[in-house]
Amino acid sequence: MRRHTLFTRLLTVSLVVILACVGVLSALAYVYLRNNAIDGRMNALKAQARDMAYLASRLSSDSVARAFGKNSTTEAYMRWKSNRIYSEYNAYIMVVDRSGNVSLYYNEATLQDESIQAMPGREEIAAYMDTALKGEEVVRQTQSAAGPLFTVLVPWVQENSYTNTRTVMGFVLIQTAAQTVHAAYSGLIWPTVLAALFIFLLAAAALFFITRQMTRPLTAMAQAAGQMARGDFTARAPEEGSREIQALSASFNRMAGQLADLEQSRKDFVANVSHELRSPITSIQGFAQGMLDGTIPPEQHEQYLQVVVDETHRLSKLINGLLNLSRMENEQTSLAYSDFDICELTRRVLISRITQIEEKNLQINADLGEDPVFVHADADQIQQVIINLLDNAIKFTPEDGFIYLSVRQDKDTVYLRVKDTGVGILPQDAAHIFDRFYKADKAHTVGKGTGLGLAICQRIMEKHGQTIRLVSGDNGAEFEITLAKGQNNGANHAN
Q: Whole-angstrom Cα distance, residue 94 to residue 181?
């Protein structure tokens, strides 16, 4: 019940962010539209005031008060227009001449309007006159007993065509309650809310599909990771979506493939170890039981005890190989670097294997030179590599065969090669010879080794940052290792 998927979390957070953004933008849009509506309303009032000022200038300039009493066409039009202004803006109109005489235009219904009670007094009219005589127009909001008022003031002038002059004769003042101006934008609230809701729903729908498209490969990746946690390494993530998601899925699938290979390697390792351990243990158990129960006669005990001893040696060699490989695969294992003569070390290994060489009457061709060749490495570990390579060469070279050893160097690297004239390595086996427990003879013939020697050699060279490779696989086998060149410091550390 409490489970929330990545999709729902991402969608919820995104919707909250979108809702906040839409809310802020809607508020800003409403304020902008409201200000535009107020400006439009006030500009319209100013235009009406200018019209009234123009009509006032058409009246006789001899006496404004007397002219207002005349039943002229201009006067009638002014009254008609004042009714229009009142009906549209709920405003009254005041026409004031230079002498302070006031003519008030309003509809009969205006008499009941509270704004009439808030008309400016003489002192305020005088202040307005000072502004009008300067030819300035005024738009302001004031506070009265009846509430806030909007006031628009426009000077009205009279032109003298003979002198080509303009004289400010007074001003036209239109005043209305603030709520009539606010009514201009009161209808904007619901359209703004509906527009914001529509935009939010549209964005939410688009976000839903985009988020689902984005999270689908991540969800599939999470499911694949769950399968892998349960031991199923065949699971893969779909490589779809954005470039970043595709790159992540590709990396995940490569990791899954490597884990699958590692798991298969682990299974093969366990199977191989079990097989290699079972063979000598079975032999030891069988022969010991045969001697105990009398199946093997006493006169043959010595012969079969020798077989038991050989099997224990084989078992000990296998265990030591596993320990060496495990030790080399431990990243915390450090190497004891020193500078030593690789040619001298190779000669010592040859001397230690002289018995096996003579038993098979093998011919050794060692191109090691007379001058020392110093390398920088762990002498004991490199000695183990040379022993393993030489033992393999002795093991797979037939009697009266040849084994070649050579050392050469260039500017920074020393190359050591070991070659035999044995049966060689088939192309199908060449890619696996450094795998643990891999043997070219698939039957794992007794006495043919543990299949760990080359794997140990490769790991030792990797720890040194160097390489070991199969040079050729037919007409005998030839291996080459590389070593970093050392310095002749006058001491031979291979002793």
A: 19
What number of other Cβ atoms are within 10 A of residue 50's Cβ?
A: 16
Measure the CA–CA gap between 437 and 440, rounded to whole angstroms.
Answer: 10
d(CA 369, CA 442): 39
E-assigned strand segments in 193-250: none
In this prediction, residue 327 has a pLDDT band, given cuts at 50, 70 and 90, of: low
State how far the Cα of 415 lies from the Cα of 480, in Å rounded to an integer. 7
d(CA 302, CA 283): 15
The sign of the dihedral angle between the CA atoms of 230, 236, 241, 247 is: positive
Average pLDDT (88-112) is 70
Among 82-86, 444-448, 478-482, top mean pLDDT goes to 478-482
What's the CA gap between 108 and 110, in Å, rounded? 5
- Both tokens of residue 375? 């390398």
Residue in the structure block whose two tokens are 């001899």: 62
Q: What is the DSSP secondary-structure string of 284-349?
A: HHHHHHHHHHTSS-GGGHHHHHHHHHHHHHHHHHHHHHHHHHHHHH-TTPPP-EEEEEHHHHHHHH
278/52 Cα distance (integer angstroms): 118
- CATH class entry, domain 233-333: mainly alpha
3-class DSSP state for residue 451?
Answer: coil
Instruction: Say which DSSP state 109 is in.
Output: G
Distance CA 350, CA 344 (A): 10
Of the ranges 235-249, 334-348, 405-419, which one carries the lowest mean pLDDT score?
Answer: 235-249
Yes or no: say if 60 and 230 are a contact pair by the CB < 8 Å rule. Answer: no
Q: Which CATH architecture has domain 6-189?
A: 2-Layer Sandwich (3.30)
- Of residues 345 and 164, more confidence is placed in 345
Question: How confident is the model at residue 415, as a pLDDT?
Answer: 94
Q: What is the pLDDT of residues 366-385, one digit of tens each?
A: 888 888 999 999 898 898 88
**What are residue 142's DSSP bridge partners?**
149
Most confident of 163-172, 237-246, 298-307, 398-407: 398-407
Helix (H, G, I), strand (E, B) or coil at 8: helix
Taking the model in full, what pTM does it have? 0.46
Distance CA(70)–CA(76), nearest Å, equals: 9
The single-letter code of the amino acid at 367 is D
Domain spans in the chain, listed from the N-terminal domain onward: 6-189, 233-333, 335-484
Neighbours of 259 (CB within 10 A): 12
Asked: is 335-484 a CATH 3.30.565.10 domain? The reply is yes
Neighbours of 314 (CB within 10 A): 19
